[in-house]
Amino acid sequence: MSGRAKLQTVDERPVLRLERRLKHAPEKVWHAITDPAELAHWFPAAVEADLRDGGEIRFTFPGSDHTTTGQVLTVDPPREFTFVWNDDTLRWLISPDGDGSLLKFTHTFGRGDPAIAKLTAGRTATGWDVCLDTLDALLSGETHEPPKNWHAGMASYVEEFGLDDGEVLEDGTIRFRRDLVWKPVDEVRALLPDEPGWYVVQDPLEGTRVEFTEAPEGDVAAQLTKRHEQLDKLFAATHGVDLPDWTPDRVEAVRKHYAERPTQG
Hints:
The protein is α+β, with helices and mostly antiparallel strands and 265 residues long. The chain is built from eight helices and twelve strands. The chain has helices at residues 26-34, 36-39, 114-119, 121-139, 150-160, 185-191, 220-237, 248-260, and strands spanning 6-10, 13-22, 46-49, 56-60, 67-76, 80-85, 88-97, 100-108, 167-168, 174-179, 198-203, 207-214.
């Protein structure tokens, strides 16, 4: 059974939490999350691991010969498997749940600036949803087709987590920062409005993001709303999706949201 991911902050670091209730014994789930042959069917990278506390773990993405290494932190079968990947900590906890298991998964973003790492939580949550749904299907001897429209899932989480919100900085400047996954910079620049204030960043750890800043003029809440809609459409366009204009009710709801909340960053 799938459940929505939750985004929290622990010790100033963003943390994603996901749960799945699985109709399988903890031992079977443990095998699926630690055996490389099983991981190959649902985990986003090929994995080789020295399954002991302090052991090395290696990851290779499909179609790439570049391998990254991490460290195994905890191996406690069939209860806990925790390791570090690219400075992020992934923790898998399995507990008996009736005639099945409860799998609790946490992804702690340990890399770089917490605020920038947090921007990627929408796409990361969407990716883990797909991985865990595929794991559930694998355990049941079934297949799971990944979504054809990744944009919808990511946009839903971005809104739910508040990652689409603009802010007003101490000097009054309006700022938006949006994750654009790993889209090529030139492709993103071709979609930007022909006006100042837009900046595309390619981060080796976090991927591509767009930043927009401008000095406020007049109704700041209305200005934030206008740019919010613009960035929603930009994010969709990078995935080949053409969003319609917001309805007047949607515009007013977002304007009210900005008018009623603290916006200073």
